[in-house]
Amino acid sequence: MNVVIQCFQRGFHNDILEEFLRYNAPVSTHGVVDLNDVYNEKLKQLIQVTLCMKEEYLSNCSGTKVTARLFELSNEQVKLLNRLADGESVWIAEPLYVGAKQLFDISRKLDQMAADPMAASNDKQIIKGDLEQEKYMEKCVRTVHTSFKLCLNDRNPNTHENKKWGVYMFTNLELRIYKLLHNRDMVRNLVKVMESRTSELPTPEQALGTKHRAQLVTYYYYMAEYYGCHEANFDRGFEFARKAWLASRADAGTQENMICLLLVPFAILARKRYPDLHIFKTEYPAVAQIYAPAIECLRNGDLWTFAEWIESHEPLLLRQNLYVPIAMIRELVLLKLIKIVCKHSGSGSIVSLRYIAAGLVKSETKTGVKTVSEERLDSTECVLANLISKGYIKGYLSHSNRALVVSKTNAFPRLTTTD
Fold first, then answer.
1. How many CA atoms are closer than 13 Å to the CA of 42, on its beta-carbon side?
2. Using a CB cutoff of 8 Å and minimum separation of 24, what contacts does 380-385 make?
């Protein structure tokens, strides 16, 4: 009996089954499938659809080109796997993920082709999903979400056989799709669902462990991005980014750089810590090239350079959802500037507001001022009041004397250290 059929009849998966499900794997490597041996109608349909996928790929596709027909067949394959998975144990989760992941890959290629004016003009059929103007990825995620729900809602009382062990793989795939679709609302909904079911699920470490280490790192990365970039919860964002960094391979290259892009600003905002620049430039030169100027601004209180740095990196920061977290670091640059101004004022614990305001203007514009307007003094008072309320400065404002009175001991509690 064919090995593929045996997998479904006996409830196990292996490399042969996974290779059979892939549209670009040769049919000959799996032996002859005798459909007369298949009594399960859904399984028979799955085999037929998969063979049609392989034929479509060989006839009309290539490594860079796929067709709408291949998408429809792949979508049908995952739907059939979903039907077969209902009632099966955890073994089905990985074959199901293989089908879902290749559906994602096909959808992404088709949407990329649709975005190419040359491809669109050559094949009008390709730029239409099941609804006109609907992206293939939008149709894909509906099918993938069914797979996610099958795993999440499995009621198998045997916890070791429960499909809940596969839920994190589909969570990662959905989050990746929503990120490509720029759909933050669906990201939030998915994370909220996972949070509400935490007590019923194995931990990510238990479910993914060493066998699926890449999936574990991906899950941590998406959680770090969600909490830090979407919810401004930098403590949780930092913890997940740190876990992703620790779990990633030492030579992970691009993956590790992506994690560090999150880890550095989250560490600054959550722990008031930044990396040693010498080590940083040696270990992660690509990320250090991006962040080194900002870290220097944290050390010298240069508001003008920090603003220029944000402007020059705006496309990257927006693309990585980091613009808001990075903008919030400006407050720490500002704090460093005020600390420097107070240190050099020569007036002890009572510092003239005009002196501080002049320092702010010079740092922001790179030009000095002879006089400071009342409006500027008022805005400087607001800035200082905010920093005092957050505990960054120990002291108080004397409005009548237009002065900042700082504590004679530890006026600026230590916040930022090297790590």
1. 13
2. 380/353, 380/356, 381/353, 383/334, 384/338, 384/353, 384/356
This prediction's pTM: 0.90
* Contacts within 8 Å (CB) and 24+ apart, 271-276: 271/238, 272/332, 272/415, 272/416, 272/417, 273/416, 273/417, 273/418, 273/419, 274/298, 274/416, 274/418, 274/419, 275/418, 275/419, 276/418, 276/419
What span, in angstroms and rounded, lies between the C-alpha atoms of 274 and 205?
A: 28
Dmax (CA) for the chain in angstroms is 95
Distance CA 34, CA 1 (A): 8
At residue 414, the pLDDT reads: 78
Q: What pLDDT score does 416 carry? A: 52
The sheet with strand 350-352 has its strands ordered as 350-352, 403-406, 395-398
Backbone Cα Rg of the chain: 28
Report the DSSP pairing between strands 273-274 and 350-352. unpaired
Q: What is the chain's length?
A: 419
Q: In the numeric block, which tokens belong to residue 88? A: 């099966």
- Name the amino acid, one letter, at 416: T
Show the low-confidence residues of the chain (pLDDT under 50): 1, 121, 124-131, 418
- Cα–Cα dist 240/51, whole Å: 42
Give me the pLDDT at residue 119, please: 57
For residue 274, the SS3 value is strand
Coil, strand or helix at 183: coil
b/e 19-45 (16+ beta carbons within 10 angstroms → b): ebbbbbbeeeebeebeeeebeeeebbb
Burial 138-166 (b: 16+ CB within 10 A, else e): bbbbebbbbbbebbbebeeeeeeebbbbb
What pLDDT is recorded for position 128? 46
Contacts of 86 (CB under 8 A, 6+ apart): 150
User: Which residues 6+ apart lie within 8 Å of 198 measured at CB?
Assistant: none
| Residue closest to 221 by CA, chosen among 204, 241, 207, 205 | 241
Q: Can you spell out the DSSP letters for 300-340?
A: HT-HHHHHHHHHHTHHHHHHTT-HHHHHHHHHHHHHHHHHH
By C-alpha distance, which of 180, 201, 50 is closest to 115?
180
